[in-house]
Amino acid sequence: MAANRRWWALVVIALAQLMVILDMTIVNIALPSAQTALHMSDGNRQWVITAYTLAFGGLLLLGGRIADLAGRRVAFMTGLLGFAAASALGGAAANSGMLFGARALQGVFAALLAPAALSLLTTTFTDPRERGKAFGVFGAIVGAGAAIGLLAGGLLTQYLDWRWCLYVNVPIALVAFAGAWVLLDGGGRYEDAHLDVPGALLGSAGMLSLVYGFSEAESRSWGDGLVLGLLAAGVVLLVLFALWQTRAGVPLLPMSVVRDRQRVGAFLTILMVTIGMFGVFLFLTYYFQRVLGYSPLKTGLAYLPITVGMITGSTQVAARLLNRVPPRTLIVPGLLLAAGALAIIAQVGVAPAYASHVLPGMLMLGLGMGTAMMTCVSLATSGVAPRDAGAASATFNTAQQVGGSIGTALLNTIAASVTTRYATAHAGPGTDRRTLASRAAVHGFNVATWWAMGALLLAALIAGIVVDADRMPASRGEPAPVPEPVDTVG
Question: pTM for the full model?
Answer without folding.
Answer: 0.78
